[in-house]
Q: What sequence folds into this?
C-alpha cells in the first residue's frame, strides 16, 4: 500500500513552489515546470522521496531511535506539535534554542530547572516563605522555559534524526545536526538547498495543508517503526522462550547419559 497518493499531494498543494524569482538553482532537478510565475514541483519525484524518507524514519525508530520534529514558523507550529505528541516524539515549535543539540548538557540543566519550577508551582506549599515579587519572577521564568522547552521535556539525549519544516528558517538546527552527523529529513521547497538534507521531500513548506500532510506522513512512519520494534521484541522473546525447553532437555539428556556411564 502506498504511503500517500498523487491525488492527496495535489489536493494539499504540495506541488506549489515559490515564485520563479525566489529560488535556489540547486533545486532545478526537482522542478517540473513554472506556471504564472510559480514553480511547480515534480510530484512524481516527491512520491519516490517520500517512500525513502518513510522507510528511513521507520527503521530508525524500529531500532530504538527517536525523531525530533522541528518547525517554528506559524504554518508549521500546530502540525509539528500535534504529530509529535501523537506519536510520542520530542518537538520544537516556537524557538530553536542555540546549542539545543551541540550543547545538550547545558540544555539538560535548563530542562532540570524547568521541572524544578513546575514541581514548585504544583506543590501546595511550593512558594512558602517567598514574597509576591519573587513568586512572580519564578512564574515568569517557568513560563519562558516552558515556551521553548516543553516539547523536549522528556528528551534525555540528542535525537537520532530530525524532521524539519523549512530548512532556511531552521538553518541553525540544520547546522547543529550536521555538526553531530545527525540525519536531516525535511521538506524541500524551491528556495531551499538540497545539500542541507539527507532525506529530502520536494514540496511546499508554506501551505498549511501541505505541511500537515507531510508531517503526518512522518508521524505514520514513526508509528510503523514502533510497531516493527514491538514485533521484533516479541519474536526475540518467543525465540528465547522456545530455546529454553530445548536447552533444559539437552541438559537432562546429558545428565542421564553421565549417570548411565557411572552405573557401568
A:
Amino acid at each position: 500500500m502506498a504511503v500517500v497518493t498523487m491525488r492527496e499531494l495535489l489536493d494539499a498543494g504540495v506541488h506549489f513552489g515559490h515564485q520563479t524569482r525566489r529560488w535556489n538553482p540547486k533545486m532545478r532537478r526537482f522542478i517540473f515546470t513554472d506556471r504564472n510565475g510559480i514553480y511547480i514541483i515534480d510530484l512524481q519525484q516527491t512520491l519516490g522521496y517520500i517512500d525513502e524518507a518513510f522507510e528511513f524514519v521507520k527503521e530508525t525508530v524500529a531500532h530504538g531511535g527517536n525523531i525530533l520534529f522541528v518547525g517554528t514558523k506559524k504554518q508549521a507550529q500546530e502540525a509539528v506539535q500535534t504529530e509529535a505528541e501523537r506519536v510520542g516524539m520530542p518537538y520544537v515549535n516556537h524557538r530553536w534554542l542555540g546549542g539545543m543539540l551541540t550543547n545538550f548538557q547545558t540544555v539538560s540543566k535548563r530542562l532540570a530547572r524547568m521541572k524544578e519550577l513546575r514541581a514548585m508551582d504544583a506543590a501546595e506549599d511550593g512558594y512558602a516563605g517567598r514574597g509576591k515579587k519573587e513568586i512572580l519572577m519564578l512564574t515568569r521564568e517557568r513560563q519562558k522555559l516552558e515556551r521553548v522547552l516543553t516539547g523536549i521535556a522528556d528528551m534525555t539525549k540528542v535525537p537520532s534524526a530530525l524532521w524539519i519544516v523549512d530548512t532556511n528558517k531552521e538553518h541553525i538546527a540544520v547546522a547543529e545536526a550536521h555538526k553531530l552527523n545527525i540525519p536531516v529529513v525535511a521538506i524541500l521547497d524551491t528556495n531551499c538547498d538540497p545539500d542541507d538534507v539527507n532525506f529530502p521531500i520536494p514540496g511546499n513548506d508554506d501551505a498549511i495543508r501541505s505541511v500537515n500532510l507531510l508531517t503526518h506522513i512522518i508521524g505514520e512512519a514513526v508509528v510503523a517503526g514502533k510497531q516493527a520494534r514491538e514485533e521484533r521484541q516479541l519474536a526475540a522473546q518467543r525465540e528465547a522462550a522456545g530455546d529454553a525447553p530445548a536447552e533444559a532437555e539437552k541438559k537432562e539428556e546429558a545428565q542421564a547419559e553421565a549417570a548411565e556411564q557411572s552405573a557401568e
Remarks:
- The first helix runs from residue 6 to 11.
- The mean pLDDT is 92.
